[in-house]
Amino acid sequence: xxxxxxxxxxxQPAAFAFSKTNDNWADGQIAKYPKGREASAVxxxxxxxxxxxxxxxxxxxxxxxxxxxxxxxMRVFEIATFYTMFNLxxxxxxxxxxxxxxxxxxxxxxxxxxxxxxVIGPQSTVTADxxxxxxxxxxxxxxxxxxxxxxxxDYYEDLTPENFTRLLDDLRAGKKVKTGPQVxxxxxxxxxxxxxxxxxxxxxxxxxxxGDWQKRIAADxxxxxxxxxxxEAAKAAxxxxxxxxxxxxxxxxxxxxxxxxxxxxxxxxPAWPAASAKRQPSSSTQDxxxxxxxxxxxxxxxxxxxxxxxxxxxKVASVKATKTAAPAATEIPAPTxxxxxxxxxxxxxxxxxxxxxxxxxxLEKLLNRRGVWHFDQIAAWTDKxxxxxxxxxxxFKGRAVxxxxxxxxxxxATGWRPDSAVGDKPGKK
Length: 429
Ligand code: FES
Known about the structure:
Shape: elongated
Strand content: 5-15%
CATH class of the largest domain: Alpha Beta
CATH architecture of the largest domain: 3-Layer(aba) Sandwich
Number of strands: 7
Oligomer: single chain
Distance between the termini: 61 Å
CATH topology of the largest domain: Glutaredoxin
Helix content: 40-55%
CATH superfamily of the largest domain: Glutaredoxin
Bound molecules: FE2/S2 (inorganic) cluster
Order of helices and strands: HHHHEHHEEEHEHHHEEHHHHHHH
Strand order of the largest sheet: 2-1-3-4-5
Largest sheet: 5 strands, mixed
Number of helices: 17
């Protein structure tokens, strides 16, 4: 422990005043705090005063800070004498703070202190050449590299009496010294080098089966670029068709005028029967279904004047008309093995799928996006359908089987409800 007293009168200067620059700086610090709270700037001001006084705090400097902040001197003394970062006595050019707290103590801080006593002299005294002074302080927060010292603004760690003595010799000789650990290790990694997290796969995503993340991002960007180009090309083609031969693109009025015959003559959009036909025919028009039972594939396969501008207009009108007439909630087409999927919940409201243990808000949204809204839908899944759904659960693969969604949903579909809002864990008695 260190006794914290002001330096004897004999070394105290007769006066202290902040330099113009430091005074301006102090004003800037004080301005950071609300009016009436100027005292909050006491530590930075004491630090600046110590810097200006040559590495220690004369009594007059402490008083000057008190005056600047409108604080009683005693309050400022209390602070200056509490923190060992403030030197109350003259300090050497290299001011050494030796940590003497338990971890450093156990790792040999006493031997480091012995070196200080032998080479420099008693605590808080400056060597005759003015080069060194030292002080024992409490933990400096580098315990894993104990024992350590702080010299001016730098840390020196993993000290032994030998390397510390060498360090002092080098400092005295004005040589450049290495800061941080004085043994062969980087920062606070284990002695002899790091032993964990060496696998490169941990940093490129391959450890979680996502491959090289840089390549993946590059591929994603390329795909997005191509998709944007394709969309642009499609837009340009549509514009060209609309203006070819000087004919205007169809307006709402013109669409209305042709819509009735178009519905009659164009190939009908595929309508998937409700519960009876949850599988779609393999050769039909289901590839790109639009929500609400609308399929655009009929547009491309119809014989109605595919190459003629008028034919295409008629098709557009037909599609619009079909969309208008679509039923409110119908099953949407899905590939073979897909279960019954609904574009919208029945009755306009889906079940609270979060009551299935393991399904949170994210998964519920994902299920809804996939056309799953009700417990009875899940309860009816066959093994094949379960496997199909699993392929659509991006980021949650395997959850449906692991958490027994089908079994849980069978129970929930009967009207039974769990005690908890997150459901009952399967297997709970
Ligand atoms: S105990 Fe010495 S740095 Fe923490």
